[in-house]
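Re: the multi-chain job from yesterday

Posting the exact lines I submitted so nobody has to dig through the queue logs.
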Amino acid sequence: MSLAPRLRDLQIAARRREWLAIMAMGLPWSIALGSRVWARGEIAIATALALGGFALCASVAWFRSRRYNDQWLLRGLDSARADFQDSSELLLRDKESLSALQRLQQKRMQRLVDGIALPDLRSAWPWRRIAACAIVAALTVLLPRFWPQTAMQDDVTAPSIPPAAHAPASTTLTRLDLDITPPHYTGLPVRHETTPDARVAEGAQLRWRLQFDVTPTAVSLEFHDGQHVALVRNGDAWTGSREMRESALYRVTIDGAAPLGNDELHRIDVIADEPPDVRVTAPDKTLSLLTTGQQRWDLAFEASDDYGIGEANLSVTLAQGSGENIVFKESQLRLRGEGDSRQRRYRHALDLAALGIAQGDDVVVRLAVSDTHPGKPNITRSASFILRWPPDASADSSGMDGLVRTTLPAYFRSQRQIIIDTQALIAKKSALSQTDFVEKSDTIGVDEKILRLRYGQFLGEEFDSEPGEHRPPGSKGEKGSAADPTSATHDDALHEAPQSAAKPFGSAGNVLTEFGHAHDQSEAATLLDPDTRRVLKAALDQMWRAEEQLRLGQPAAALPFEMKALEHIKQVQQATRIYLARVGLELPPVDETRRLSGERKDLADRSSGLQPLDASDHSVADAWNSLADGVSFDASAFDRWVRAHAARMPEALGLIAANDALLRDVRCIDCRARLRALLWPLLVTPPAGPDARVAPDVGGGAYLDALDESVLPAESHR
Amino acid sequence: MKALVLIALLAGLLFGLHGALRQHGWRRGAALGLQVASVLLLYVALFPLLRATSGAMLVVVTPGTTAAQLASIPASAQLVALPDVAINPTVERTPDLATALRRYPQTHELRVIGAGLPPRDRDAARAMALQFDAPELPRGVIERVAPDHVVAGNAWPIHGRVREVPGGSVELRDPSGAVAASAPLDEHGAFDVRTIAKGNQAQLFRLRVLDATGNPVEDLPLPLYVRTGNAARVSILAGGVDAELKYLRRWVLDAGMPLAARMALGGGMDLNDGAVNLGAEALAATDLLIVDDRAWLALGSVEKKTVTQAVRNGMGLLLRATSALPRSVTTDWRGLGIELQEADIATATNMTTSVGQSGTLALLRLPLRSVSANILPLHRDDGAESTAVWRALGRGRVGVTWLLDSYRLELAGERTRYAQWWAESVATLARARGAAPLDTPASSWVGERSVICGLEAAAQVTSPDGAMHELLSDADQCAAYWPREAGWHRLRSGDRDAAFYVMDASEAPTLRAAERANATRALIRTETTAANVQTALPRWPFLLAWLLLTVMLWWLERQSPVA
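And the result, structure tokens for all chains:
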């Protein structure tokens, strides 16, 4: 006999309750398990696990609910209601197998079951267990997210995994060909590289050819200076080209496919075309003097360049004249060298006569060598080399401006030599005829005059006759032209010029000296300090007197004056220096109204206004420090700083590349170390500061105090 | 404890005797005797008897022991092996020496074979007589002395010794891997390299040893912690302006120190940087006062007294002799404990300029020499003649220099050297304000005990992984730390901090061996204070005897007819 439908409902309700309760406890666990695995990126496994957990819960629940069988139902009914009189089992029995009494009871039971509200036999909801399961499962899911430090530690400190490791989600560059075509003039061969980094000559044409394992819709090269090169599809390869003028960093970017696995910056280093190197082998010094009889000036140069040497131009400048009246003649000579295109030797013999060099002229040569760079060739110029035909001694003073000369130059027969000559003449007087004697005496007088005039130049006097010019003794003009022993100014010489007009017509070389009156250079007049000047004047005076006697043919009478002149000249030479003042200390004018008055108004202490060192830019030091832990480093701010200061930094590209790696992956420890290594040379060594001395503790302080009391008094008694 | 046990035993004895007295005949006598004997035996078992022994020698096998060394040990000797000993597994292992000494309490002498005792076991060995034959050290760096911290801008000197690399050289590599300095090894293998510290905080240099052909022999880390300088408050008083003051003031400002200067211009006018105040309170807030002889001459007697008192209270005073000293100045300075006399020496003096290079520059000094006792040189020229001296006066220090033109170092391009000269002067003389440094280990390895001293407050070590470890310091303000990770560790104690570098266990093996050998050699002692060791008799025979007697007593009492 089967159960009455009402009782069956009772059993089903209990079973359902049990099933639901178990599912409520088990489901959070399977969801938690699934989501943990999901968080690691393994979606399929996560789904499988969640479904498996669900199935496991369901089967457990089914097994558990099977316990609610008929026996359970009858026991539950018996225990729930006393009026069942423990007879509910009879409801399941067949009538035939029962005794009469049992049948009677069965009938009663059926009436009872039909007539009453049946008790609720479902077990209570296990709210506590369900809540506990849900909470623990939720914690399992959420806790790792809010556990940044230790739970994620492994990921932070582990060296960055190359992005290629996440293989399925990225595209791989399967093949990269880089054809480098250097500019034609370099003569370098076309190169082929399979690495993305290269060192190329300036102006080289680069052609990229890329292949990927997945075909993207667009590929371009992005350069760090903002330029793009869009690559063109050609079969399964992508090609594009660019001419490189400056070093650059670039990255391959693709569209229409998963991002590139390895998308670090690549580097193209451009080797700039160096200007040629010029060496001068002859002459061996920048200033050479013309030797007598020299007709040619031999020049030899060597030039070398990294790619090829172009033109070599020799510029020859002839400087004629002296003082302010200098005329330049410039000419260009194109030289042909010998040797290969990278290293050439140039020889040239300059024909001096054809150039028209005269005494006092300078020839200045300079070689300019250019390379074969098209458009804007690099030009290197050698130093200037001068060939000088030493000018007449008289023109020498113009070169002395601003110099300090240690001694007077000895140009001619010295005063000592004149004394020696005079003494020799006196000794030979008996052997000579009177005319010879007077003539020789006169010659010595001329020497004396030349010497006098020469020294007179230093006093700003005029030089009025050619050396060796012979005039009759006692000539008025000559005497007047010489330094006047009393005034030593040149006022007397005003009348001198017309006297030397006996030159051939047309020799207008020195019109000024002939017709004008050249007051001597003011700087020559300031040559000597007043004391030296006075002594020199006295010397000239003595020389003039000696000359007079010599011209009169009385060398014996001249000798004392000569001796005196020598003595004075020695004194002048002992004056250690001759100052050629050109620039002076320009002090503000003295306020004569306040001078020596004792007036102290407006005088006050001053502040020195010393400014502390400006050390506002700490970017390098800050970056260096913050990279040590890597947490506080702001890679984007540093990137801006490097780009702003790239011109000052030789390794800016390296810094940008290393920083870019950090921008892309903050956790990359190797990138951090690389950037730090690049920053190290940029760190500035500060001025050394003092270390802090350790303050003495109680014992140390007491010791010092005791030392002060005991030692110092003992010393002070000494 | 012992007294309580004794009372309990006596009580037990009385109870037992009372029971024994109820026996009769021979049983009574036997029970009494057994009771007394069993109590005695129990006491001896609980508190074993001590016996004076002559002690025994324990052979400690340390890592690095060779089979030959082990073979030379007589078979009768008691051996224990420390952890990490690679050979002969039959030798008894012990986790550390202290455990071994507890196992063999009669030990009074240790014989250490192998490379030496690790730091962990040195304290345990201190009370013992110890024999140790230091082994031959391997090839490589066996000594390395380098300050672990330097103020930025100063020279960082590193010297040490390398074994068995004839004709070799060392290279100091900076954190970027470039060679910062290099030096050849002398005939003893010693080297001396130096570089200028820059940047700040923790830096890791490397020291590379190259052999004669330039091949690397060893590469070991060389940690450096760079600090910023002490911002000493410097005041300058000068009787006139000169070039020295110009560059000195420039340096003071550039090195980040607060500057106050007053330089007389004549006619009662001064050139000022800030305000120099010679009041007692202002001087108490000054760390170093630099006064030249002309300014000293112009000071009043009250001011001189105030300055002297300020020095006694801790201020530093640097006197600059710039010309022949007037008698009154000499007398005043003698009162400060500094006596200078004219000496027959050249006024030109040579000074080594470049760091790491051998450049010299001729500078000028006054022909003076310090003749006072209790004085220390502050600077010397290349001929070891002092150009500046100092002495302590109360809590402070007084120095005097008669070098006239140190600024010419700067003019000659030796800016660093100039700054170092003055930094050294200021560091020596200025008021002591620094906190005592934490005494961090000079070299430590992963897994090895390192000792940190000078801990006045609770201290924590932060290891490279960011974990914080509290240190337990003992009465000597020292604490031990076992690093588990290589790298920079930060130490913090109160408001002081420091950093130390821990090497990987595989790094600098030669240095480690040398350090072990040296430390163990320092423990060698022939005699021990406890020549006669009291050793306890074993307990088990007494316990066994007590058990026997007790069983006999029990049997006796069970046999006896109940009264």
